[in-house]
Amino acid sequence: MIWPRYAKFSSENLEVAERLISVYEGSIGKKKKILKAFVGDLEDTGFDYHFVRGLALLLDRRSVFRCRDNFDSVDLRRKIFEATGKVGPATTAEKRKQVIGNVALEFKIPVEVVEEFLYADLDGELVMVEFDPPSPRELLEKYNLSLTQTLLFESTELRFRASANWQRIFFMVKRLGLIYDAYVDGGFWVKLDGPSSLFKLTRRYGTAMAKLLPAVIANEDWTVEAKIVWRYTNEICDFRIESRKHRELFGFKQLLTSYDSSVEQDFASRFEALGSEWHLRREPEPVMAGKKVIIPDFSFERGKIKLYMEVVGFWTVDYLLRKMEKLKSVNVSMLVAVDENLACERVANLGRRPQLNIIYYRNKIPLVPIIRYLQESFKEVRSEQEEFLRSLSIKFTEPFVLFDQFASRIGVSVEAVRAVLNEKTPSGYIALPNGLIRKDTLEKIEKRIDARLDSAGKLTLPEAARIAEKEGVEVTSALEALGYKIVWHGIMSEKAEVIKPQN
Amino acid sequence: MVRLWFDKGTLLLRGAMGTPYGKWDLRVGCYRIKALNYRDVLAYLKESGVSFEDYVQQLPPSESFMSSVELRGYQSEALSRWRRAGMRGVLVLPTAAGKTYIALKAISLLRVQTLIVVPTLDLLDQWRTRVRECLGVEAGVVGGGECSVRMVTVATYDSAFLRAEVLGNNFIFIVFDEVHHLASPSYMQIAEMYIAPYRMGLTATYERIDERHELLPRLVGDPVYSVDVADLTGKHLSAYSYEKVYVDLAPDDQRVYDREMAVFRNYLREKRVVLRSARDFQRFIMMTGRDRGAREALLARNRALKIALNSEEKINALARQLQAHKDEKTLIFTLHNDLVYAISRRFLIPAITYQTPKEERREILECFRRGEYRVIVTSQVLDEGIDVPDASVGYILSGTGSTREYIQRLGRLLRKVKGKRARLVEIVSKETVEVRMSNRRGRNETGGKSKGAAK
């Protein structure tokens, strides 16, 4: 295991950060070398110099240094070197004075200014003109991120899982020239290395993996693992960070769901406004298709049923066919929303291909065909499930069975359970809208309630509930099955009365 | 059908066939082969009599050369040895022996797309000029912010490394100037990720302290020709002398020096730290990250060394030398940039460091060549490469103590010009660790000194 010396948010560290930030803030208008001397002093006076130097480097990136005025030092030097080129190096004080004096005359500036500007363009002579101060905590977070990235420079492979942001992650993986290998192991994992990694361990792709890191950890939930070659001993070490324990170190804000296009955003808001039973999710977990990975734009979930949709930008017929081929191999239901305006070929070229679940749109993705598709898929799945349920010989012993509990136990939808059990009610049971009740239990409850009604002339709902629940039955279901009514006096259930219908 | 593709610095073999040079890549489901083995795989496929399609090469358009390169005897010999070795191999020749011309001759004979890889931006410029002069074509350049690929292209090691994924299949011939750099763990990937079947390495200093030069035969080919300074001195290289000038530290400096060194030595003694090799020292540097005492000892040593290396007395000694030899074309070498600028300010002479703007650097070197400037002060950036035939005096004010650095700095002065006699002068602070550093770099040089030098 290898573990960087992350900066904790201790008061001591926050103070160092704050001190450095204020040194930088106070350096506007001053030379870089003066700033660097300050930082150097801080490094050498009792602080961990790696830490101080690291923070300073991050602050450098938030600073802008410029050459004072717009004086052309290169031109000044040229004149001076031309002079010594003729008379030889200024080996004596007089000779030096003479050369400088002549050049000062030529530029019409005082001698001191010549001395001052001779090397005013060197790095240390530059002057700070701008500084964008972070908060001390933010600086420590950036420091921790940058420590991690520095470590990843030395990595030979990277593995991670993340809860979202997949499109951006895979886009970067491709652009950075990395090769991925995806697998499912208690979550969707991606292993990364590069073409040459096949031949030997190489740090060549370390920089690319470090660049990818922010996209992975800007997520709610993630784990990152890497193999690091420790430079000094050439040992291979494991490195692992996970959001659960280490999110704090980097202080990444979770990214808000961002949309690639207004078309997608518009679709999501219209779909959600429908209030359908389908749960719409943006950028769901990728789907494995052999060695390849498919990253859908949306998923629609209802119970155990999961369908996907991809919104396609520019396309050709060939592209769509290849996509469908890929999808067929994994047996995933995917809708493809295709923009007619962005077709690189005439839509007519596609002809009628029933196996393609294509939805055409202009400007707006239409809801109607999507809802219809969802309902059909749902019906299809439901009829399969009903078929399955009918094939079982279901026997119960409990006095009362709730459909949704039973459905989730077998892994089918409530609707399928309700339909099948209504149609094929097991003997000895009565079907209710939300479950099954055993006949003998129901009779027992009826007797008790009637007895109370006869003796007291009146029965409140809580009293009835006590009777039903003693038999393990939910009271309203029982009353409904018996055909009894509840008369409410106000909203308090204590005052509600159970009435037996008069036949 | 078997097909061969280039994929980001490697080759992919698609089709129902394997190869002893490749490895099955589960991630993509086909054979993957190092680009280095392009030549071998082609030979294997041909030998096997399989019909295959080769989609590997992606070459820039051909241009025709005019060749005006004439080689000296030993240069021709070197070239023909390389050709006999199957157009692979390393040529070891002293700086100033005209390695560039051998490579240019090879390019003009092969007439294929060629990449020349060099360590510095100055060398990049220099090769570009040579290509224009000797081959009559404009060279492509990759590095220093430019990126144009042409029939003959010059690239820095850094750019060739970073862009191997896209440039790897652009060239048939690759020349590694200062090929000892190629053996480093990252740069060796250039050799592995480029397909070029023809390869030539050039260097004056083949061996590396870390022994990694033993990797070069696999990457470029065996050393096929070698000649040293002594063999060429007088006839092809200029004669030279080597001297040391010792200076005292100023009394104040000496006091501070002794005090700081004592802090360092006491720490080592107390903690029983022995620093005998570069490795020991590296371990010590790592200690300074954790141990405050070690860090303070290191800082004390650095302050002491700075005094020894940058002493005022050295600059005074340099002034006397410059005064006495003011008509000679002179290079002044130091270890640190601070000293470069101190000397530049004091004597008002041009300076070149890694901070010098590219245009100014080009201009300074050009003026130096033309003789308008006669003295340049520089840190390590000019150790390799730059080529000014009539530079005749070199002053070493400070260095690292490596033999390679010494040979390279000497090399700047050795180009043969009629009547020239080169002088390399080292200015060393007496009674400091610098004496030992100076002796270390001179150690392997004695051969050249006895034959080539009068002193």
Task: Give a written overview of the molecule.
The complex is a heterodimer of chains A (503) and B (455). Helices cover 45% and strands 19% of the residues of chain A. Chain A is an alpha+beta fold and 503 residues long. Chain A folds into five domains: 11-67 and 125-138, no CATH class; 73-120; 153-250, Alpha-Beta Plaits (2-Layer Sandwich); 262-377, Trna Endonuclease, Chain: A, domain 1 (3-Layer(aba) Sandwich), CATH 3.40.1350; 392-503, no CATH class. In chain A, strands 4-5-3-6-7 form a five-stranded antiparallel beta sheet. A five-stranded mixed beta sheet of chain A has the order 8-11-12-13-14, with helices on one face. The longest helix of chain A has 24 residues, at 368-391. Chain B is α/β, with parallel strands linked by helices. Chain B has 18 helices and 19 strands. Residues 444-455 of chain B have low confidence and may be disordered. At the A-B interface, helix 4, helix 5 and strand 4 of A face helix 7, helix 11, helix 12, helix 13 and helix 14 of B.
Query: What oligomeric assembly is this protein in?
Result: heterodimer
Instruction: Summarize the biggest pleated sheet of chain B.
Output: 8 strands, mixed
Low-confidence stretches of chain B: 444-455
* Major β-sheet profile of chain A: 5 strands, antiparallel
Number of helices of chain A: 18
CATH architecture of the largest domain in chain A: 3-Layer(aba) Sandwich
Number of domains as seen in the coordinates of chain B:
4
Structural class determined from secondary elements of chain B: alpha/beta
Please give the domain count of chain A.
Answer: 5
Largest interface: A-B, 40 and 49 residues
Mean pLDDT of chain B: 88
Count, helices of chain B: 18
Overall CATH class of the largest domain in chain B: Alpha Beta
C-alpha-based Rg of chain B, rounded: 25 Å
Secondary-structure-derived class of chain A: alpha+beta
